[in-house]
Amino acid sequence: MLVETYGVGPEDRNGPAIRVFEPGEVYARDEFVYWGFGDAGVQRIARIPGFSRVESLVDVEVDGDPRIIGRLVAWKLPDGALNSLFTRQESVVAAAAPGSWS
Predict the structure, then answer these.
(1) Does 101 fall in a domain?
(2) CB-based contacts of 50: which residues, under 8 Å, 6+ apart?
(3) Can you give the residue range of the structural domain that contains 62?
(4) How many domains does the chain have?
């Protein structure tokens, strides 16, 4: 999955996982609170839903604002794992079908 989010400046890139900006710090007269992510922050956030790693982290600037772009990579299942799962599920469904009990 491709992710693009608000980043941090070069001075914070390898610092704390997440930098929380004050309202108005990112955009004047803006009351929103922005979270800026460095490389470590994106890595840590990706692990919460179970991604195995983040690849190709790129720090760019868009209209003067830092952005970070990366690819979240899911765990690789062993070959045949899904086939085995669906075969078992079909067996359970067939066994539970009306008229299948003796």
Answers:
(1) no
(2) 74, 75
(3) 2-96
(4) 1
